[in-house]
Design brief:
The complex is a heterodimer of chains A (190) and B (534). Chain A has 190 residues and is an alpha/beta fold. Chain A is 41% helix and 23% strand. In chain A, α5 packs across α7. The two termini of chain A are 24 Å apart. In chain B, strands 2-3-4-6-5-11 form a 6-stranded mixed beta sheet, with helices on both faces. In chain B, strands 8-10-9-12-13 form a 5-stranded mixed beta sheet, with helices on both faces. Classes of the chains: A alpha/beta (190), B alpha/beta (534).
Chain lengths: 190, 534
């Protein structure tokens, strides 16, 4: 098996946390992993992305080639579109529906949504609203992960276990919030 | 035991496990995480491994050289342009030679994700005539650390370890081992090695030249330079460092392949590859360092393809896509690029003190149409972008002050420099001294956020010392001001800037307010400590 994943969004939205959880789950399944990311600028409101590759065989390139990403997980709708050239024919986009408008020339949201609607395999979730409504305001990113779980091909329980491992030292409240968020995401993509 | 580690972290852990006694570094993307890992590592703390940030890459290189002189193993870390700053010490360390193992890590940035250029540090290794190692994977980066230290002690030379962003900032599982003991204190008694008066230097240099065949045979025999010859005689490939991964990803099978991860180049292996092929493709991340040398080695008649022939792009980092194209195949794209897209460049954080500084500067500069604001390197470089669009130049660490002085010498008025606190101690102080000594008519703004922010909020060398430093350098008390960059202080700050522009001499204004990112982090740490105490 191989799964090539592009995670993207705006600096500060928690993309790397999702990558950490997936990486932890994959390690426990004895999969090979490579995860490339760009540091430094990522606190500063710019676009950020991570290339995460999982495979049952040794992985060579740290970067994903064009047309071969199986999943694009995006915390922001326009950012999802930025990586379209990397999406494989049957690949999935799982994206937040809420735009992050911190630039003066942000495109019309209706255009962005129309572009996404044209694609064959897209799941759009209002993770911010779901997070607020369900009292897990800082776990919107994990809701997105829950929505992406099926496309990722990783067992749900393995992701839960990974959340416990990754967030354990932050206390039970944080772990519970993220377990809840994961379930909300899975529910949302049904 | 397997750990998921960034390339940077693999290097750091490899060094600790190889008996490291000190890491000397200045923050620089993509090398910063090496030192941060060592600073946070329990064993390193237990062993008292020195790891405080240095003021610049030159002091770092020299500090490491001192530890090496004393017999212990030292690591130096920097980004590629940092090599330019430590070049004096670096090149001369090849002439003195080393005692305890000394490894210099240069983290290059092809595609300039966060740099001014994509210079290739391998040229520095060749320039200094020392061994260079270039790991391809995170595992190799870890494994090559004890190897590098041993090589350094055997050859009695510093060893340059060269990585690129895509290895430094990429994670993979690494099999790690146990740590060995540090070296004992054992200072070098041979003064003739270390005192580079011309008489000694000539002898040392001759000895460096004499060592070159040993370096060559070490590369030739190195397990990290692997030659696989195919039964078919066709295209042969030389893949250096991380390029090996892209080649393995996309390469059609049955091609002769030479993996290069140690330099000087293994000439015999290259010649064997060339004899078994009818043309060679050189795949390397950075500049055509190997491509040029192989042309020299094989002569004008041999068909060599690479970055110089257009088979690979001349600029920018390697990707699996461009490497596939070099083999004549293409990764099929299923979807065309989206049209409803906008660039999202990084910005100054909301609430950042630099924002208030630029607001004040722009307000006053608008009254002087001939004003020029010379910028420098840090978060405040983002002042070049909208909405501030405030700076006219940004070239290298510390250039703001010295370029402002040079421009003022030529008649530019007003000539204003803006520099951060870390950059000021890194290489602004010497420029300020020039300005004071020559009574230059410049206004220097040291935007002090009490940290080295762009690289992630590391300690800044001169915190709380700037007024004293400026006075000691000769800046007049009446023309040195400390202000707090907040909207409510705009009137005071603009008045001071205007007054100092109109003073014919050196003025220094220090807007001082802690970076909001480090402020938040400190608050979180305090809360966590409080909770633990309860």
């Amino acid at each position: 098996m191989k799964t090539d994943i592009i995670l993207c969004g705006v600096g500060g939205q928690g993309i790397l946390s999702i990558a950490t959880i997936i990486g932890e789950a994959a390690m426990n399944e004895n999969l090979y992993i490579k995860q490339a990311e760009v540091h430094g600028m990522s606190q500063r409101g710019g676009d950020v992305q991570s290339n995460l590759r999982l495979s049952s065989d040794p992985i060579n390139s740290d970067l994903i080639a064009k047309g071969s990403a199986d999943v694009i997980i995006s915390m922001e709708p326009m950012e999802a579109l930025r990586y379209l050239p990397y999406l494989s024919k049957n690949g999935w986009i799982i994206t937040s529906s809420e735009p992050f408008v911190n630039i003066p020339n942000y495109p019309e949201l209706s255009d962005i949504k129309a572009d996404l609607a044209k694609l064959p395999n897209v799941i759009m979730v209002d993770i911010e609203q779901l997070a607020k409504d369900n009292n897990v305001p800082r776990s919107a990113n994990v809701i997105l992960l829950g929505a992406a779980q099926k496309a990722l091909g990783i067992e749900y329980e393995k992701l839960e276990e990974a959340i416990r491992n990754v967030f354990g030292r932050k206390g039970e409240a944080v772990v519970d919030a993220n377990i809840k968020a994961l379930a909300l995401g899975r529910e949302a993509q049904r | 035991m397997k750990k998921l580690l960034l390339g940077d972290e693999a290097i750091a852990l490899g060094a600790i496990n190889a008996g490291l006694s000190g890491v000397y570094a200045y923050p620089g993307t993509p090398s910063t995480e090496i030192t941060e890992f060592i600073q946070g590592n329990a064993l390193a703390k237990q062993r008292g491994v020195r790891s405080r940030w240095c003021t610049n890459e030159k002091t770092a290189m020299e500090g490491a050289l001192g530890m090496s002189y004393a017999g212990k193993r030292a690591l130096v870390c920097m980004k590629h342009v940092g090599m330019n700053v430590c070049a004096d010490a670096f090149v001369n360390a090849g002439v003195t030679g080393v005692n305890g193992g000394l490894v210099v890590v240069a983290a290059d940035d092809p595609s300039m994700h966060s740099s001014q250029n994509e210079q290739d540090s391998r040229f520095y290794g060749k320039f200094a005539m020392i061994p260079i190692i270039e790991p391809s994977t995170q595992q190799e980066a870890y494994d090559m650390m004890p190897y590098a230290f041993e090589l350094s002690e055997r050859m009695k030379l510093p060893v340059l370890l060269r990585i690129v962003t895509r290895l430094a900032h990429s994670r993979a599982a690494v099999e790690v081992g146990e740590a060995i003991e540090q070296n004992a204190l054992n200072p070098d008694n041979e003064r003739s090695h270390w005192v580079l008066l011309p008489g000694n230097a000539r002898r040392q240099y001759a000895s460096l030249i004499e060592k070159q065949p040993q370096l060559a045979s070490s590369s030739e025999d190195s397990a990290f330079n692997k030659l696989q010859l195919s039964a078919k005689k066709g295209l042969g490939v030389i893949a250096c460092g991380i390029a090996y991964n892209y080649v393995c990803e996309v390469m059609p099978s049955e091609i002769s392949l030479l993996k290069v991860s140690q330099y000087p180049l293994p000439a015999d292996k290259i010649k064997a590859l060339a004899e078994n092929s009818d043309s060679l493709l050189i795949v390397e991340d950075g500049q055509p360092f190997v491509e040029e040398q192989v042309k020299g080695l094989l002569g004008a008649g041999y068909d060599i393809k690479g970055r110089l022939t257009g088979d690979l792009p001349r600029t920018g980092e390697l990707t699996p896509d461009c490497v596939a194209a070099a083999f004549g195949s293409e990764c099929p794209q299923a979807f065309p690029p989206a049209i409803h897209l906008a660039g999202r460049p990084p910005q100054l954080c909301k609430g950042c003190g630099h924002r208030d500084v630029y607001t004040a500067l722009n307000q006053v500069a608008a009254e002087y149409p001939e004003a020029r604001i010379f910028g420098d390197i840090g978060c405040y470089t983002l002042g070049a972008l909208p909405p501030y669009q405030a700076i006219d130049s940004c070239v290298d660490m510390g250039a703001s002050i010295t370029m402002a002085k040079g421009a003022a010498d030529a008649g530019v008025f007003p000539a204003i420099a803006i520099i951060g606190d870390s950059t000021f101690t890194h290489s602004g102080m010497t420029g300020l001294l020039d300005a004071v000594n020559d009574k230059a008519n410049i206004t220097v703004v040291i935007s002090d956020n009490l940290t080295t922010a762009m690289t992630g909020g590391q300690d800044s060398a001169g915190t709380h010392k700037f007024e004293a430093i400026c006075l000691a350098l000769g800046v007049e008390r009446e023309h040195l001001h400390v202000v707090v960059p907040l909207p409510k202080n705009m009137e005071e700050i603009t008045r001071i800037i205007r007054e100092e522009i109109n003073y014919n001499g050196v003025s220094v204004i220090i807007p001082q307010r802690e970076c909001i990112q480090t402020l938040r982090r400190h608050a979180r740490q305090k809360n966590a400590e409080k909770k633990q105490a309860e």
